[in-house]
Task: inverse folding
């Protein structure tokens, strides 16, 4: 091969090395950066190799031969660094790196100052062989015992690391390791052949050209398997960014590395940098003693540590680091389970509350059963006695007792209905003007009889500044007052009960009221006071309790007050008494109403009434009312009969039960209204027959129920149970009496 051809190959190799180096990745986290440095060093070597063969003249040839060492001395070190990064995923330790780089620098200085000491080259001269001029060098002691050992030790270590990589790695990584191993074998084999094989021409050293092949193989290993280069980088990022704390300990349990989460965790202890410290100092405030930690494995254990912000709990993974079956350290992974522990504690509390609620409901069912059976037993017993009693005085007393028991039973049923409505969010409030003092008087008249046989003073006062007419739901307010006062009456044996309504202030067309109920009863303990407004709660739920009740009154009172946008609280001392305070804001009327609350008197005997009711007991009750009214009536046991009689007979009013067999009240009313619309206008010029007023009878009293009755064509609405007075009032509101008079 002529010198010109070799120079051309060197030029092409130089261009190729620099071009390929420009295409390689420059990220420090991957070994491709080391490959880039290696390719550029090879490019410099080939550049001077080209000049060495291309430029004529002995002196210039000697100079360029020496210039080649600017690259040659760094090739072994570059190969070593590349293999280290490939195998271990990290750069060589800076101290070791600095120590090794001294050797090529010293060799370079010795080569360029050789004319002063002749220790690197003993002799350099131009020789001629096979028609080619070349520089022949005879190497000195420093070349043989400094540079050559450095170069071949680096290459030998690189060979070992590449073989280890071939054994250690799997699948694609192993193929990559094989390519790198082959990339080392090619130039090293050529260099050995040039230096030590007899008969090999010394005129041309093919080692640089072979390194071009090596550089290309390194590049192929990156391009073909480049995705593997990011694995160490990705692992490092994953470890540093993960939320779990990771510690690496040596065989003496000294912390040699820790990720960001671990450093952040240890920074809370304010004990400085953890690296190089024993793990013992961080186990002081934990549930694991240093002695136990050193002698045992705590994999899948729970570590609890005390911090300024409170206890923190960690799920601990403890894995040994083994080398040739010998433990050389351990990896600790701490997953923070404090939120999970808190959630479990909260669940335990909720579980306890749920169990208490279940027990309270069970007690409530047993208690409500007792409360219902008690008046029912009295009613059955009294009615039986009524049948066997002759005197009018005994009759009156028994009837009074029956009325008392039925009112008690009705109150329990009303409480249960109110509770179901509140829990379903269907309890409705009506806003109408009412006289607050009338509500107070009605409540007082209900409570006063309960106190007659006991030495209790009952004081009632209403502030004079309170306007006469308040706007709101009088029934619900009265229910709240009765609940509070009946409780005071129930639990007070002697002393006094004060019922006060105080004026606080006017604000934006609202009046602020404070209602107080104070008694000298048995009082409430601090522990029971916290649960006083809970559903089903009773201070005494034993079989020997002195006071009856369903346990619903105060719970319903609290929810009624909340829906009236008010507040209620209690102050109480056991065996001293209690005071309930109710704060309300309600609209009011500044002027008194001129309407009279007294109903005019009418002759009820003119009425013809159709009662559509399927319940026999209700029919009997209505017969008594009709007898008192002295009116005419007819009965229909279901909606179908009611339609037939309404269309064939003449009635002034129809009382229509909603829930009936055959045809319900809504459908019956619709059918009657449709029949009325189908009647033709009289041909004699007389007025058509007016439609018959229909009043709905139902146990449900919601706006939805009233709307359905109205849509069915009904004119009035009467809630069961009702009294004679309520029935007459509804009839009067429909102006039926005035129509009869005309």
Result:
């Amino acid at each position: 091969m002529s010198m010109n051809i070799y120079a051309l190959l060197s030029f092409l190799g130089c261009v190729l090395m620099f071009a390929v180096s420009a295409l390689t990745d420059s990220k420090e986290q991957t070994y491709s950066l080391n490959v880039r440095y290696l390719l550029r060093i090879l490019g410099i070597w080939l550049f001077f190799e080209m000049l060495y063969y291309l430029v004529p003249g002995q002196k210039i040839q000697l100079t360029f031969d020496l210039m080649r060492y600017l690259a040659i001395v760094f090739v072994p070190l570059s190969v070593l660094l590349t293999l280290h990064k490939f195998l271990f995923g990290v750069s060589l330790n800076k101290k070791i790196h600095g120590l090794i780089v001294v050797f090529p620098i010293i060799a370079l200085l010795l080569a360029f100052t050789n004319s002063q000491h002749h220790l690197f080259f003993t002799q350099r001269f131009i020789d001629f062989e096979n028609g080619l001029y070349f520089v022949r060098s005879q190497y000195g002691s420093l070349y043989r015992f400094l540079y050559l050992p450095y170069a071949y030790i680096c290459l030998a270590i690189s060979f070992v690391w590449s073989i280890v990589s071939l054994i250690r790695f799997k699948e694609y990584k192993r193929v990559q390791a094989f390519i790198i191993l082959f990339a080392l074998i090619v130039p090293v084999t050529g260099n050995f052949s040039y230096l030590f094989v007899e008969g090999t021409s010394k005129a041309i050293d093919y080692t640089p050209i072979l390194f071009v092949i090596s550089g290309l193989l390194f590049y192929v290993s990156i391009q073909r398997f480049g995705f593997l280069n990011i694995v160490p980088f990705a692992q490092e990022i994953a470890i540093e960014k993960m939320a779990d704390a990771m510690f690496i300990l040596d065989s003496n349990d000294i912390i040699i590395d820790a990720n960001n989460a671990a450093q952040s965790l240890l920074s809370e202890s304010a004990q400085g940098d953890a690296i190089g410290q024993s793990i013992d100092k961080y186990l002081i405030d934990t549930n694991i003693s240093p002695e136990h930690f050193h002698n045992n494995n705590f994999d899948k254990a729970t570590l609890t540590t005390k911090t300024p912000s409170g206890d923190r709990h960690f799920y601990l993974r403890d894995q040994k680091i083994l080398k040739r079956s010998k433990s050389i350290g351990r990896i600790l992974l701490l997953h923070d389970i404090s939120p999970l522990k808190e959630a479990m504690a909260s669940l335990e509390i909720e579980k306890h509350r749920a169990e208490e609620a279940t027990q309270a409901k069970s007690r409530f069912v047993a208690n409500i059963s007792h409360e219902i059976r008690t008046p029912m037993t009295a009613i059955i017993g009294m009615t039986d006695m009524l049948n066997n009693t002759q005197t009018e005085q005994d009759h009156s007393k028994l009837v009074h007792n029956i009325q008392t028991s039925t009112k008690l039973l009705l109150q329990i049923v009303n409480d249960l209905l109110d509770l179901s409505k509140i829990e379903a969010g269907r309890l409705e409030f009506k806003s109408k003007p009412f006289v607050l003092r009338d509500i107070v008087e009605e409540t007082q008249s209900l409570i006063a009889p309960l106190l007659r046989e006991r030495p209790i003073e009952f004081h009632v006062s209403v502030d004079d500044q309170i306007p006469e007419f308040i706007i709101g739901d009088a029934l619900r307010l009265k229910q709240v007052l009765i609940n509070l006062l009946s409780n005071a009456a129930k639990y007070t044996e002697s002393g006094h009960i004060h019922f006060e309504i105080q004026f606080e202030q006017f604000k934006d067309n609202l009046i602020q009221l404070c209602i107080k109920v104070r008694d000298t009863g048995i009082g409430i303990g601090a522990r029971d006071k916290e649960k006083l407004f809970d559903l089903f709660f009773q201070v005494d739920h034993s079989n020997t309790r002195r006071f009856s009740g369903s346990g619903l009154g105060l719970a319903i009172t609290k929810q009624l007050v909340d829906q009236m946008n008010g507040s209620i609280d209690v102050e109480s001392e056991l065996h001293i008494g209690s005071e309930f305070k109710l704060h309300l804001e309600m609209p009011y009327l500044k002027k008194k109403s001129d309407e009279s609350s007294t109903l005019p008197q009418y002759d009820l005997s003119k009425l013809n009434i159709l009662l559509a009711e399927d319940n026999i007991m209700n029919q009997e009750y209505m017969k008594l009312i009709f007898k008192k009214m002295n009116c005419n009536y007819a009965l229909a046991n279901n909606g179908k009969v009611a339609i037939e009689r309404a269309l064939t007979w003449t009635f002034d009013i129809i009382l229509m039960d909603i829930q009936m067999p055959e045809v319900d009240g809504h459908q019956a009313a619709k059918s009657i209204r449709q029949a009325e619309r189908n009647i033709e206008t009289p041909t004699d010029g007389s007025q058509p027959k007016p439609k018959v007023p229909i009043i709905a009878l139902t146990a449900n009293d919601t706006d939805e129920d009233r709307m359905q009755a109205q849509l069915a064509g009904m004119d009035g609405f009467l809630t069961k149970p009702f009294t004679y007075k309520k029935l007459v009032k509804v009839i009067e509101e429909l102006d039926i009496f005035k129509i009869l008079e005309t």
